[in-house]
Design a protein that fits this description.
two-stranded antiparallel sheet, 17% strand, Rossmann fold, alpha/beta, 168 residues, 6-stranded parallel sheet
Length: 168
C-alpha cells in the first residue's frame, strides 16, 4: 500500500467533539498541538493533507490556516465526493488515500479509501470499518498517531524527517 494523501474529519478526531458556544454561536474548539506536528510531518514527507468537515467552523478554518492545510473542505455532507475530487485533481486512486473519522457520517469515505482509521473513542460504525483504531482519543493526539502509522508504512522514521533507506 502506498498512501499519497491523508484526510481527516474534524470533530471527534482533531477535537474531543466538544465546542463552546456563546450568544453569537461557536466561540472555540480545543485542538491538540501534537496533531499539528502530524500535519507537518505528512506534508514534509510529500503527502497531500486535508480536512473534511460537515461543519462550517470558524475555529477550524483558523486552525487549518495555521497548519497550512491546502485541502480544507467545510460544510461537506458527501465526503466520498471530496475523496474522488481530490483523487482527480492530484492524479491519485482511492487506494492511495487514507482517511480518519469517528462517526457514521465518515464511514462511507472510510470504506472506499486504501487505509482507514478512527480515534480510540471512535464510535462503533467507524470502528467496524477502520484498518487502524488509535490508542489516542479524538482531540488528544489521534491524528498524530494515525499520521505516524501512515509514515511508518511508507518507511519514514518516527523521530526524524528522513526516510529510512533499506540496506542490502
Amino acid at each position: 500500500m502506498v498512501i499519497r494523501a491523508v484526510l481527516t474529519d474534524c470533530d471527534g478526531v482533531l477535537t474531543d467533539g466538544g465546542v463552546y458556544y456563546g450568544p453569537d454561536g461557536e466561540l472555540m474548539k480545543r485542538f491538540s498541538i501534537r496533531d499539528g506536528m502530524g500535519f507537518e510531518r505528512l506534508r514534509d514527507a510529500g503527502l497531500v493533507v486535508g480536512i473534511v468537515s460537515g461543519e462550517r467552523s470558524p475555529s477550524l478554518a483558523a486552525r487549518a490556516e495555521k497548519l497550512q492545510v491546502s485541502e480544507l473542505h467545510l460544510g461537506i455532507k458527501d465526503k466520498i465526493a471530496v475523496v474522488d475530487d481530490l483523487c482527480r485533481r492530484h492524479g491519485l486512486s482511492r487506494d492511495e488515500v487514507a482517511f480518519i473519522g469517528d462517526d457514521v457520517n465518515d464511514v462511507p469515505a472510510m470504506e472506499i479509501v486504501g487505509f482507514a482509521g478512527t480515534p480510540g473513542d471512535g464510535l462503533a460504525p467507524a470502528r467496524s470499518v477502520a484498518d487502524h483504531v488509535c490508542d489516542a482519543l479524538g482531540g488528544h493526539g489521534a491524528f498524530r498517531e494515525f499520521a505516524e502509522v501512515v509514515l511508518h508504512q511508507l518507511g519514514w522514521t518516527k523521530n526524524r524527517y528522513e526516510r529510512v533507506e533499506e540496506t542490502a
